[in-house]
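Weekly structure sync, notes
Attendees: PL, DS, HV (note-taker this week)

Item 1: ABC transporter, multidrug resistance associated protein
DS walked through the input record. Source organism listed as Monoraphidium neglectum. Sequence as pasted into the shared doc:
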Amino acid sequence: MKVLIKTYGAELFKAGIYKLLWSVFLLLGAYFFTRSILLCIRTLEGKDQSPFDTEWKGWALTACFFVNAWLLGLMMQRMSYGCLGVGIRARAALTTAVARKCYGMAHLTKDTAAEAVSFVANDINKIFQGMQEIHFLWGAPIEAVAIMVLLASLVGKYCLPGVGILCLVVPAQYYFGYRIIKNKVANFPNTNARYSIIQELLPAMKLVKYYGWERFFEGEISDARSREMRLLIRNAIIKTINVTMVFGVPPVVTFAVLVPYELTNENPSGGVFITPQTAFTMLSLFNVLRFPLMLLPKALRCVSEAIQASETIETFLAEPAAPKHDTEGAPGVSFSKATFKHVLGDSPFRLNVPEFSVRPGELVAVVGRVGAGKSSLLQAIMGNMSLESGSAHAAGRMAYVPQTAWCQNLALRDNIIFGEEVDEALYDDVIDACALGLDLQILPQGDQTKAGLRGINLSGGQRQRLNLARCAYFGGDLVLLDNALSAVDHHTAQHIFDRCIKGLFRNKATVLITHQVEFLPRCDKVAIMDEGNCVYFGPWNEGAQKLLSRYLPASHLLAAAGNAEQPRDEKKKPAKAATTTNQDKAKKAAAAHSPSLTLGAAIWEYAWEARWTIFVLSLFFFLSAQTSRQIADYFIRWWTNDFYKKYNPACEGRLYGVLALGGFLTLMLFRGTFLYTWAIGAANRLQVKSVHRILYAPLGFFLTTPVGDLLVSFTKDQDILDEALPDALYYSGIYALILCATTITVSIVIPAFGALAGGLFLVSGLMLSLYLPAATHLKKLRMGTAGDLVTLIAESLDGLTVIQAYNKQQYFTHVTEQRVDDAHRALFGSECLNLWLAFFCDFYGACMVLAVASFGIGQWRVLGSSNVGLAFSQSIQMLVFYTGSIRLVAECIGLFGSGENLAWIANHTPQEGGRLACPALAGDDDEGKPAKSTVGKALPPPAESIEVEIARSKGKHGPPMGWPRTGDVKFDGVVMKYAPHLPPALRGVSFTIRSGEKVGVVGRTGSGKSTLLLALYRMFRLEAGSIKVDGIDISGLSLQQLRRGLSIIPQEPVVFSGSVRSNLDPFDEYGGDAELWSALRDCGLDSTVKMAGGLDARLDGTGGNAWSLGQQQLMCLARAHLKKVPVLCCDEATAALDPATEANVLEIIERIFADRTILTIAHRLDSVIRSDQVIVMDAGQVSEIGVPTALLSKPGGAFSALVDRTGPAGAAALRMMAAEFATERAAAMQMAMRPRPSLDAARRVSLERLSLDRAPHGAAPRAPGAPTASVTLGAPRH
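Item 1 (cont.): predicted structure, written out as tokens:
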């Protein structure tokens, strides 16, 4: 904060001078010119004496008043422009500083990264807003004090009641601002809880639908929303009281001052004592005081948030920076007796490296079990671990491929080039060496295809090869590859190893972490890691083979062969003519189901959701309140003019009190109450309906609608509808009615002014017609560029290790500066457009004041001082409220843009047929009609149970009680499309699974494996065919009953934030705690849960305290175990796990699900080799189906080909496992189906027997379980 003040304080002070001049001109117009012109008219009437005793002096005052009014607007614009310039420079500097700090931080945790993104997205903008509002913080009290002094000069001691009221009102503004801030801070946990649930829920919607947990999450969001609404309503009450107090100041102070002043003084000539210049000058002063008092709470909130944000950012910028990597020394790595530790936390882990080195031209492989310290070794090389003892040296330009591939949301070409100079020849060599040529042919836009957020548009293998291509193109001296071949098939791995690692990297110092031991003989040296220790470093020889077999379990060997994407057949690009029809259909479908409404439709639907009855009542109280205020002001004109010549000060004082105090204040309370009830009610109904419709939207909707857009709708857009839009509607209604009432009142008093008033509204419409299109365009540009900036920071922090390894901090800082400039160009244009509007509006306001003054001086004989005084007290408000009215109306229209997406979600999001009928993609039905709208309709009441829901459905017949019982599954001619304009994903699929059978499904990427589960769970409509479970056609079932009648273990396990109990049994349907503990014990999670604190322990789904991947998968196992249904689906349940955890999970599945029908989707062939049947999918069709041994006996069979592609060693082991299982199965049938042995044990025995078969003649036989398997598979070639 001190640096900001020192850097920008002088410029803010200059802007403050303009604000002070604005206050001077405001008071000068409201006090001096208003009083002087009225005094001039009174003098001309012969009712008073003053220096302004001629008409030309009145015209001179009129001209000066116009100049004063014009300068008044000019000073405000100069202040705003000065604060804008300072704010943008400060914002740019802080954003760049935060980005530079992020890119150079030594250690960035997940929580710190989230804070950094929040700084750029929110906190720095709060500092910008604080700089825009800071001068209103001190301006209001100064103006209030000045008005008190001027009031004393008008009425002397009678100003004391008014001073007392102001002394209560001004501090009350600070107090109300404080209370609003406090309630907002108190509401942050509730808002964040709702945000967190939605943010966690949307990416996991497929899993939620698999489990049938929509109703549970709807309740969780509803609970958070209820807590949030209580504080929103409390703030709305405070705002209503605050506005009533501010706008009640003029009539209340006028009553408190004028009535005693009139009652205790007598006019020597009889009649009214108070003069028009006194009454209307005082009224003008208090009318203009409303504007700064209205802005005071907002200024207090913005400045306090800016101070808090600056302190938070200051703490962040003080974090230690990363050590600089030596890029000038001799390339290579040399460790000697080195011990490293992690810098963050108090982890006891130590990395011990007695000896390790790599020089240019050498390839060093690092092997070991999962968690042995292999990746830590690379982190130590990159300088991300602290050296405790020994010596460590690493130098040279570094290139790094991380274990988890990192991509930017840029074109593939830009991801590969990574800020380097373009070399087309090198680029082509890299594409070939990294086996990306076929992928670029298949992708629709070649190397210009966007990778998507976190590479979502690419497969895992494509992402990893893209990272490898970046590394190869960079041309570093020291190449670090962290398991860079794990996600590619055997043949692709051989291609990359030959062309890239042994080709492009042949002169580099290369470190390769790998599980694929077949490459070890071709490496210069091998490092074997175990439990953080480098137990061997040297050439690959027989001693290294024996040592490795002791540390690397047998399950790792098949993992190396099978943990990869299946190869795809080479395909040619389809001809454009063949795809034109589908593309046209796709465009038409996208247009029909665009997740947004037009602005007019959004406003209309918002009004329907808000309820027209409340709107009419709110409008009535708005009009009534403003009418009572105008009558009260008009009454002063009667009073000062003694219009009815029946002077009775006590009666007139009481009458004014009834109008000003009783009527106006009461009606203002009602207008605020009904307005906020209307607006907040609409926002809440839209939110509740949006959540409901999203939860019950078909899965296809999420495939076509970006999750990021939905998150923006549920967070930023909802926040605008909750607070910003109600406030804008409230103030725009007040300001617009003040403007209209002022125009009408002045037109009544001065009839000739009516013509100018018509011109005023005409000009206002013209200004809006010019302003709104430009403002809408600039707002979208501003939001887009700001979003690009935040996205860049977020994705850069995800890949910070890569950025630092490539020493690209300066490059990314430069890119960030460019994004900052783009964002600020849009911001500057948007704000300057507002200043342009304010300039002309202020000028027109000054012209209106000039017109009133001119009519007053020119027609003083006809109008009289009382009429002119009333006109002046009204028209002076135009200087303050005219610009505000136009801008607030424009702001409301702009804020309604946030309702475009949310109203569409609430009323037009397609539904899964009322949760009973088959869904289609994005609401498409056979005729392509959009989803049915629910504008203005309430949500249907939730069903008490699944049975009640089925009973309410028409034309549906539920299954027998206890369905399903046996677990028979039959697919009969199933044809399914993901969308009407897409080709079928399943083409006539037919097969039968008998009760208790274990069936594996394999096939290449995109062959339709996982699509079988989507069809079984009715995530998409079937075009033809049927699916039956226990003989019941699932198309006649409730989606809830169907999905809760099946169990699944997903590929990507999810543990939701909440308790252990809510993650296992969200509906409390499995009895007491004993059942839950039994399931946890069977799945090996009981000790973990006890350490976490029991069933009610809080789990973090996404943060730093989240469970490991293996623990999350065990939680999914426990969920499936609890359901006690006979059908279990495993959707690549172990694909994301390391081999050791995978073996544990598969052993648990075999143990506790032995009696269930299991459908396993897998690309790991060893996971399905012991199945009763194997289904081979190809292009959406069943290519083969049968017993594994029978399929393997077909020389040219599809399954046999898949097995052979795992490599000679892996294929031999898989065939042996299949043969052994066939033998065991036959024996088991004779022995009444004894339990199957452990899968990991079967793997180990098969590999050991394979090793014995390949052992040299005369060698001593090894006992089963002896550690020999890994030696033979990686034997050196002679």
